[in-house]
Design brief:
alpha/beta; Rossmann fold; Dihydrodipicolinate Reductase, domain 2; 12 helices; seven-stranded mixed β-sheet; 345 residues; globular
Length: 345
């Protein structure tokens, strides 16, 4: 059994990790880290765990954590980079759900996050935890930067087209929508029920941090620097990311041809589902699952591909993908514990 610490266990991503791992056949939850709920049973903080998980939350104790094999750090951006060096020194493998260890270039991180990075040597070592692209590196890593939700959805959607050379790296537009859980569990007026229900709003237009993360990975696909126009929106639902990606084509293609391109690129990927031409993904089809659904449309008048990509933001966009990475780290079938269908209803 893999002994596990979840630090930041009572946030939305953290508690989704706990939910998945509590039923994982090879996982043994040892520590549920929470500063806010120290000493409280997890089944009182989240009452869906009654009769399922009998554990108390506890403050960070490095000596206790050192008894584990792996730590998931579901901490706020900036906090992870201060904790993770000590975890690595204790010999743990670490899967970080913040943005602190996702970047190839420290200057890019510091520009977009507005703070110095205190562990540049670990940033240089960390592996970007998108299994569909970096599976072999993930297997050998001791520190994984688990990708963000907007980024996972958008990168998976655009990558094959740019990698093939058929998609132009110029003037890419990503128009994305997120469920409210993407904002986390912290209180804020903008996330109150009356502010969100029956309302859709854009935010951080042209300034969202995930822009840089998407650009980093799509630049690798294209083999040149890629800059995108990224606009995120908050929509009145709990779960889901829906990215509509506009990519100009370097040659005329049909939707059928591009669909075949995507099927070939992701042919061995259980968690990637490519829609038939004429069929489009919906967030309901992926909610509560680790799947990414992708549909392709060609606007023949403009020689432009419209890629529609959907995931569950706190499952494939956070906790589920983190468990997928853990499975790879410990030599398990990467589908273990996360292979099921979504909620739908």
């Amino acid at each position: 059994m893999i002994k596990i610490a979840v630090l930041g266990a009572t946030g939305y991503a953290g508690i989704e990790l706990v939910r998945i791992l509590s039923a994982h056949p090879e996982a043994e939850l040892k520590i549920l880290g929470s500063q806010s709920f120290d000493g409280q049973p997890i089944s009182e903080v989240y009452q869906n765990f009654a009769h399922v998980l009998d554990m108390n939350c506890e403050k960070l104790d490095l000596e206790r954590v050192a008894e584990c094999d792996v730590a998931f750090t579901a901490l706020p951006h900036g906090a992870s980079k201060d904790v993770i060096p000590s975890l690595i020194e204790k010999g743990l493998k670490v899967i970080d759900l913040s943005g602190d260890f996702r970047y190839d270039d420290i200057k890019v991180y510091e520009k977009w996050y507005g703070q110095e990075h205190s562990s540049p040597e670990l940033l240089a070592e960390s592996v970007y935890g998108l299994p569909e692209l970096y599976r072999d590196k993930i297997k050998k890593a001791r520190l994984i930067g688990n990708p963000g939700c907007y980024t996972t959805c958008s990168i998976l959607g655009a990558y094959p087209l740019l990698d093939s050379g058929i998609g132009s790296p110029d003037n890419i537009i990503v128009d994305a929508k997120s469920g409210v859980t993407g904002a986390g569990r912290g209180l804020g007026l903008g996330y109150h029920f009356c502010e969100c229900t029956e309302n859709t709003k854009a935010y951080k237009v042209a300034t969202h941090r995930h822009t840089s993360e998407i650009e980093q990975e799509l630049s690798k696909a294209a083999g040149c620097e890629v800059m995108i126009s990224f606009t995120p929106h908050l929509i009145p639902q709990k779960r889901g990311i829906f990215s509509t990606i506009y990519v100009n084509l370097n040659k005329k293609c049909t939707a059928e041809e591009l669909t075949e391109l995507y099927r070939e690129f992701y042919k061995d990927e259980y968690f990637i589902r490519i829609k038939e031409p004429g069929k489009l993904p919906e967030t309901k089809h992926v909610a509560g699952s680790n799947f990414a659904d992708i549909g392709i449309v060609v606007d023949e008048r403009l020689d432009r591909a419209v890629i529609l990509s959907t995931i569950d933001n706190i499952y494939k966009g956070a906790a589920g993908q983190a468990v997928q990475n853990m499975n790879l780290l410990f030599g398990l079938d990467e589908k273990t514990g996360i292979s099921g269908a979504g909620f739908y209803l």
